[in-house]
Amino acid sequence: MKIVNLSEQNSVISNYLSELRDITVQKDALRFRRNLERCGELMAYEISKTLHYSSQEVTTPLGIATCKVISDELVLTTLLRAGLPYHQGFLNVFDKAQSAFIAAYRKYAKSNKFTIQLEYATSPSIDGKVLIIVDPMIATGSSMAVTYEKLIQYGTPSKIHLASIVGVREGIDALSKRFPHKNTTLWIGAIDEELTNKSMIVPGIGDAGDLAYGSKNQ
Fold first, then answer.
1. Exposure string for 197-213, b = 16+ CB within 10 A, e = fewer
2. Which of 20, 33, 52, 75 has its CA 20 to 30 Å from the CA of residue 84?
3. Contacts of 163 (CB under 8 A, 6+ apart)
4. Which residues on neighbouring strands pair with residue 202, listed in sequence order?
5. Is the pLDDT of residue 117 over 90?
6. C-alpha distance across the termini of the chain, in Å
7. How does strand 201-202 pair with strand 194-195?
8. Are 13 and 46 spatial neighbours (Cβ–Cβ below 8 Å)?
9. In the Cβ-directed half-sphere of 193, how many Cα atoms lie within 13 Å?
10. Contact 201/168 with Cβ under 8 angstroms?
């Protein structure tokens, strides 16, 4: 699996990530959601450089212009609920893409260990298409892996892009073992080093779903 760590480049995405992490800025849920969305827009732009394009003639008021347009068919997939604003950022850029949605959650045991419970999935065919799975956080990597295992019931994609804002090495290593090696690329804004015994990323962001939409009953 190829890994593109955007923190190794100078990019305005670092500004948005700094605000996503900032405990003071996090108090503004609207800004938090918008920063997730903006990160999605920038990552979509980076991914767009790897896609296939074809030439298309476009009629302007004064003549004919030859333009390059994306020829790949795209399917954007997100995990509810934290992924929604992040997904919207991708959709703002890839406005002709189809979308798939996965409802999944952590089911904890008394030992703080958990399994990923998938409750609902809806997806178009992904056969021969470019599959983009977006999830703001990669902790253990289990959510993305379960999502992929569900989605391949809808076909075999030509290419897979995983896009996350913050992750840890442990989760990334787990994903590399569960996704096809040659045609999967992970795009990530930053890689943190610590995963707690409750599978929380440190320094991380916190609970992105709660910060975006309010706290939930467990």
1. eebebeebbbebbebbe
2. 52
3. 40, 43, 44, 47, 86, 90, 132, 133, 134, 135, 186, 187, 188
4. 194
5. no
6. 34
7. antiparallel
8. no
9. 0
10. yes
Task: List the one residue out of 11, 31, 10 whose CA is nearest residue 21.
Answer: 31
Q: What are the tens digits of pLDDT across the range 137-185?
A: 999 998 999 999 999 999 999 999 999 999 999 999 999 999 988 899 9
Task: Give the distance, in angstroms, between the CA of residue 72 and the centroid of all CA atoms in the same chain.
Answer: 18
Specify the CATH number of the domain 2-50+74-213. 3.40.50.2020
Look at the chain and count its residues.
Answer: 218
- Other Cβ atoms less than 10 A from the Cβ of 45: the count is 14
- For the record, the structure tokens of 56 come out as 């298309």
Cis peptide before 203 (omega within 30 of 0): yes
pLDDT value of residue 85 = 97
Is-contact 146 77, C-beta < 8 A?
no
To the nearest whole number, what is the mean pLDDT of the chain?
93
CA distance linking residue 89 with residue 94, whole number of Å: 9
Structural domain spans, the chain: 2-50+74-213
Radius of gyration for the alpha carbons in the chain, expressed in angstroms and rounded: 18
**Amino acid residing at 148:** Y
Distance CA 133, CA 50 (A): 16
Cβ proximity of 114 and 107 under 8 Å: yes
Beta pairing, strands 2-5 & 184-192: parallel
**Residue 105: is its pLDDT beyond 80?**
no
